[in-house]
Design goal:
8-stranded mixed sheet, single chain, globular, 13 helices, alpha+beta, tRNA-splicing ligase RtcB, about 475 residues
Length: about 475
């Protein structure tokens, strides 16, 4: 599909609808953040998504947009369930419910630095990561089903955390509509051995410090202050989510013609939300979402124990939020209340102040939006704001600009070592060679991405965090 891009404001671009698009595309990015390299298909993907049956308002892209499977990463699309709206596994992604969890320490940077080498030495062998290399929680099938149904809630019931953790998790740490019968045998097999593991590459556990606070009132409500030490964890549903995505893309691909659906790209395989295949996927996806939440709960709890043991201080959960999920949400569209299936793929939900789904202590300030940047630059905490046009969604990271392959070509191991030393960051990768794929230059400038999010009213910055020590997958 040919994409004709129009600059709507200095911060935002529009793709006017041409056949088969049903709605326009809206890209919340200034020119310098657009994926414009020759051969890059991300903008075409925004246009393709606009052709999905039942899509309402627009196919949106966040400022960290880049090329993904079917949907762009940084893509948001809502479909009207009653009007035959579809759900598409490509609109969630392979790492179902991948997300970020932020924990706050009572220590400040100066108090932590003497402990940092010991903390890194202890966490390094303890936190399972890399491709298929063990997990914190060994379990059989029946316990795995408890995880799929109970998420972080189940992990806390089994002693891996405290009740307050759940108040600071999206959905209270578990969704109720998980249907573990829709999770195939291969997915279960892959999942059983990986509860409590980071995974590879872009997934990480990072010790950070708050280097700037933009909004003191929000920061205080989130439990953040200047100089404070935090831990950020980024991971998802590992092989289980990946296998569920693979299985359900295949199922939908086989029945699309029966539902009389045609899509401009086979990777957009989809089915009506109100069909057997649509419901099956959403049930399995919800099970993977619970799995990812239990996964982050376990990793956080282990880290908390290490901090307690080595520093004598605990870690409080700031928030846990997913950036790869589809959710059924009641929203007003054109003056009418509608049940929508909101796909956020590489996009974070960002509820505004006063939203009924927020816990009481966050209601006055809005939902924490966790935006990792890179292992050598910065990460951000934003808050949801009123007037968000993209169904209360915000960016989820800096977003890749170099392919993994290109990053390996541009950056060798000695250069990465030098850069990390210069940035003052202790890096513990599973492999230095593969960590070159994650060099900060491989990503967009996170400060620019956050500015674009703010200018487009997707969120508002609360705090900026910089890394001290990083365990990379
Ligand atoms: P994704 O979920 O798309 O794989 O990654 C989300 C974002 O995490 C990326 O766009 C990137 O900005 C960020 N990121 C990747 N690796 C690191 C890291 O080691 N540390 C931090 N702070 N952010 C990272
Ligand atoms: Mn992931
Ligand atoms: Mn992710």
């Amino acid at each position: 599909m040919n994409v004709h891009l129009v600059e709507e404001t200095p911060w935002r671009h529009r793709i006017d609808p041409v056949d088969p698009m049903r709605v326009p595309g809206v890209v919340f990015a200034p020119h310098e953040l657009l994926p414009l390299d020759p051969g890059d298909k991300a903008l075409e993907q925004v246009a393709n998504v606009a052709a999905l049956p039942g899509i309402v308002r627009a196919s949106y892209a966040m400022p960290d947009i880049h090329w993904g499977y079917g949907f762009p990463i940084g893509g948001v699309a809502a479909t009207d369930v009653a009007a035959g709206g579809v759900v598409s596994p490509g609109g969630v992604g392979f790492d179902i419910c991948c997300g970020v969890r932020l924990l706050a320490s009572p220590l400040d940077r100066r108090g932590l630095l003497p402990h940092l080498p010991a903390l890194m030495d202890r966490l390094d062998p303890l936190i399972p990561r890399g491709l298929g290399r063990g997990a914190l929680w060994r379990m059989g099938r029946s316990q795995l089903h408890e995880v799929l149904r109970g998420g972080a809630r189940y992990a806390v019931e089994r002693g891996h955390g405290v009740a307050r953790d759940l108040e600071r998790c999206e959905d209270g740490g578990a969704v109720t509509d998980a249907d573990d019968r829709q999770v195939g045998d291969r997915a279960l097999e892959r999942g059983a051995a990986q509860v409590g593991s980071l995974g590879s590459a872009n997934h990480f556990l990072e010790i950070q410090t708050v280097d700037r606070v933009y909004d003191e009132r929000c920061a205080e409500a989130f439990g953040l202050r200047p100089g404070q030490v935090c831990v950020m964890i980024h991971c998802g549903s590992r092989g289980l989510g990946h296998q569920i995505c693979t299985d359900h893309v295949r199922l939908m691909d086989a029945v699309m013609h029966r539902h009389r659906i045609t899509v401009p790209d086979r990777q957009l395989a989809c089915a009506p939300v109100e069909s057997a295949e649509g419901r099956a996927y959403l049930g399995a996806m919800a099970a993977a979402a619970n799995y990812a939440r239990a996964n982050r709960q376990l990793l956080a709890d282990e880290t908390r124990h290490v901090f307690e043991e080595l520093t004598g201080t605990g870690l409080d959960l700031v928030y846990d939020v997913s950036h790869n999920l589809a959710k059924l949400e009641r929203r007003t569209v054109d003056g009418e209340e509608r049940l929508l299936c909101v796909h956020r793929k590489g996009a974070t939900r960002a509820l505004p102040p006063g939203h009924p789904d927020l816990p009481a202590d966050l209601a006055p300030v809005g939902q924490p939006v966790l935006v990792p940047g890179t292992m050598g630059t910065a990460s951000y905490v934003l808050t949801g704001t009123d007037g968000n046009l993209a169904f209360d969604s915000c960016c989820h990271g800096a977003g890749r600009v170099w392919s993994r392959h290109r990053a390996q070509r541009e950056c060798d191991v000695p250069r990465l070592r030098t850069e990390m030393t210069r940035a003052g960051v202790a890096l513990r990768p599973t492999s230095w060679r593969s960590a070159t794929e994650e060099v900060p230059q491989a990503y967009k400038d996170v400060d620019a991405v956050v500015t674009a999010s703010t200018e487009n009213r997707l969120g508002r910055p609360v705090a900026r965090l910089v890394p001290l020590g990083v365990l990379k997958g």
